[in-house]
Design goal:
The complex is a heterodimer of chains A (108) and B (115). By secondary structure, chain A is an all-beta fold. Chain A has strands spanning 4-7, 10-13, 19-25, 33-38, 45-49, 53-54, 62-67, 70-75, 85-90, 98-99, 103-107. In chain B, the strands form two sheets. In chain B, strands 2, 4, 5, 6, 9, 10 and 11 form a seven-stranded mixed beta sheet that branches. A four-stranded antiparallel beta sheet of chain B has the order 1-3-8-7, with no helix packed on it. In chain B, β9 (91-97) and β10 (104-105) form a beta hairpin. Classes of the chains: A mainly beta (108), B mainly beta (115).
Chain lengths: 108, 115
């Protein structure tokens, strides 16, 4: 089973600033990585798949990068609606599909 | 608009059984990969099971032998039959669509296993 580790657990950033969230896989997943955003009381929403491809309707301020074992999600200029929990997920080797434990992005 | 609507959650005693349903609109469960993903209260996401369009099924080790994923073509519905429930199965269960990553999510249904 591939373990996914996200860092930091909590990230405090001011609106308008840039945020970078990290995700590490315990072995290579190539570019088979997705990112999700989850707001309180809501289901997660797909942001990025293939490590860097934005899902339909996702603003350009969200970008994904990386391959192999190291990945990043960058939000270029934080809007109020971006403060949420973010999860990465690998789908290179399954079952199981595995998620990171999440990074909470909070307002500084 | 794609919609996935789960139902069937509730309060159940340890050892009990429950069947979750997911009514799908705007696409057919017969030719899409469908999964269940759960989230324990205050915790992260955990993949539970997948049903491929061709009929193959896979399960997380934590539910293997206790849970069964299936579908009803006529009603375009996905199911999760859960047996021998444990306290650690307490979670919101989401019905999701996608081959490997998950494009569409339902709103979730809460399953609480407690005596």
């Amino acid at each position: 089973e591939i373990a996914m580790t996200q860092s930091p657990a909590t990230l405090s950033v001011s609106p308008g600033e840039r945020a970078t969230l990290s995700c590490r896989a315990s072995q290579s997943v190539n570019n088979n990585l997705a990112w999700y955003q989850q707001k309180p009381g809501q289901a997660p929403r797909l942001l990025i798949y293939g490590a860097s491809t934005r899902a339909t309707g996702i603003p350009a301020r969200f970008s994904g990068s990386g391959s192999g074992t190291e990945f990043a999600l960058t939000i270029s200029s934080l809007q109020s609606e971006d403060f949420a929990v973010y999860y990465c997920q690998q789908y290179a080797k399954w079952p199981p599909y595995t998620f990171g434990q999440g990074t909470k992005l909070e307002i500084k | 608009e794609v919609q996935l609507v789960e139902s069937g959650g509730g309060l159940i005693q340890p050892g009990g059984s429950l069947r979750l349903s997911c009514a799908v609109s705007e696409f057919s469960v017969s030719n899409h990969y469908m999964s269940w993903v759960r989230q324990a209260p205050g915790k992260g996401l955990e993949w539970v099971s997948v049903l491929f369009s061709g009929g193959n099924t896979y399960y997380a080790d934590s539910v293997e032998g206790r849970f069964d994923i299936s579908r009803d073509f006529s009603n375009n519905t996905l199911f999760l039959q859960m047996e021998s429930l444990r306290a650690e199965d307490t979670a919101v269960y989401y019905c999701v669509e996608g081959p490997y990553y998950f494009n569409y999510w339902g709103q979730g249904t809460l399953v609480t296993v407690t005596s």
